[in-house]
Amino acid sequence: xxxxxxxxxxxxxxxxxxxxxxxxxxxxxxxxxxxxxxxxxxxxxxxxxxxxxxxxxxxxxxxxxxxxxxxxxxxxxxxxxxxxxxxxxxxxxxxxxxxxxxxxxxxxxxxxxxxxxxxxxxxxxxxxxxxxxxxxxxxxxxxxxxxxxxxxxxxxxxxxxxxxxxxxxxxxxxxxxxxxxxxxxxxxxxxxxxxxxxxxxxxxxxxxxxxxxxxxxxxxxxxxxxxxxxxxxxxxxxxxxxxxxxxxxxxxxxxxxxxxxxxxxxxxxxxxxxxxxxxxxxxxxxxxxxxxxxxxxxxxxxxxxxxxxxxxxxxxxxxxxxxxxxxxxxxxxxxxxxxxxxxxxxxxxxxxxxxxxxxxxxxxxxxxxxxxxxxxxxxxxxxxxxxxxxxxxxxxxxxxxxxxxxxxxxxxxxxxxxxxxxxxxxxxxxxxxxxxxxxxxxxxxxxxxxxxxxxxxxxxxxxxxxxxxxxxxxxxxxxxxxxxxxxxxxx
Length: 491
Fold this sequence. Notes:
- About 7% of the residues have low confidence.
- By secondary structure, this protein is an alpha/beta fold.
């Protein structure tokens, strides 16, 4: 209900409240999930009225609401202790001070947040103190979205994972040398980092970050599966990224769009190497997983320094790789054909390859794999009716195009494959026009036969003829009483 008003929300809150079990307590609801995304007309007072009376709340989404302020975070810390998932992205009246108060208020009570999912996309005024307090107060955090946080620096990442020696005794931590911690290699001191439970970390478009932030995250996110570093640009280089990826063996999705300075070193660390059979593991021990063994999606668009040899090696050895976006790179037709062939052999569902603006992928190479590819990922549903996907089960008989709803076909995005979509649209329009002409012709001939059978008068004018033109020239108009009178016809 995007038109939900403040008064209506207050009334709904009062209607959901139950009487307190103990005297003196506020009436409260038993609501566990609240999603108010799109309700932009709500006031801060009505929102806080609901949150104060929702002690059982576990999931809250207030994405993009102007009603959310820094005070909202303080209320959540006080009245919603069971909160597990929180989405406060794009809230213009919220900044880093509110998140700091959320964390510090919890720590002052000697407690920690139960948060596992925290989405703060577009958060303003992110400070090192906020990141430090968040790292301490949310030890169970698994998903952290700080994308488009323009003020997030490398020092904020360092504050999030760094520990003192005393703090390291109380939480799960790892001891590192100065080189491993991303500091001066000549420093003999030891450093400690917090071992987080993060599985998904989104830092896309955090323009103040560099690959040194990746070095600071190394050894602190061993369970990381999804990493988003898109839109940062040339500041993401090989050195820090390789150090991080070497310590994240479970990485499944990696987004490095616009990282134009990447080289084959990043692809090499993502490519698992065969285990030597001459040194079998000890009895009862399982060899540690290698980075890249679980890789499913890789985005390296605009990485112009990556070679085709490195791409081929990655495609062949990452057996789970299903999505590869390498537009505006050096990819050639051989790499494209190898990806299509292996995706079909491995029987991946909805495999996807984006090679837009890859000059090495020509029209002939796209035609060679046309039998195994499709230009778009289509599906059959009411919402997809206007997109005009070509489905082989419809048997349209167009003579052009590829089955866009076949999950076994590889979705191939190139300039030439997109022309197929235009060809299908043109063929459908042509078929529609031919069908319309045929229908009009059949209707006209049928009406003419019926008119001839009904009226025997040769020179009678038909009612649909323009200007009442007679069918026979020079034939006198025969009047057969009132029913046979020619002239205006009222339908």
